Amino acid sequence: MKLIIAAVSGIATVGLLWVFFRPPFGENIVHLNTQQRIVALTFDDGPSPPYTEQLLDVLAKHDVKATFFMIGNRVERHPETVRRVIAEGHQVGNHSYSHPVLGLLPPASVRREIERTDALLRDIGVKGEIVFRAPILTRFLPVAWVLAKRDRAHVSGNVWSWDWTTQNPDKITKTVLRKVKPGSIIILHDGKGVYGNAIRLGTIAATDRIITALKREGYAFVRVSDIRH
Ligand SMILES: [Zn+2]
To answer: Which fold has domain 27-226?
Structure first.
């Protein structure tokens, strides 16, 4: 009997943890809905001058559009950078207001973090769908719950560049090119989450090389909302 109770409570604990960390409801977009050689470049944690601007120059040189998941308090600090991102035809998404470990906060705080940045982005001129990505991809129960109630997807990705651990452009380029496939959502960083500024020259150089290599292989680049999810 004791053994059965232990087994049942063990299974229940694993089940609860599973539901918390991998909620089985709401939409989590991991890749684009296509079999074709199409990928989405996504940049998190900006706007972050001068790196965001340098990145925009690289994207413009290749005539490639990308998606920027921005942090609200950085949008407040660098509105000019945001305006340039919009003016150059890129998509702007919401990456919370202050980049907390969002998935561990209560739903009311999650809602505030998302809505505050939505409002900032609307004020500055973002039109259409505002896609959302949780900091550190913590789409845990409170985040999934708040998003599902609004019928809003979470945009994750399936190619991690690991550019938050290295700014060596060779490493970043190799990591991305090794993992990329049709429909990939590639995660890069033009800024840094909580502690503000970080040098992003490696990411910028790698982006230039990644685009060149993938174009040679026949890949096209889209914004996350260009492909119906
Ligand atoms: Zn982030």
So the answer is: TIM Barrel (3.20.20)
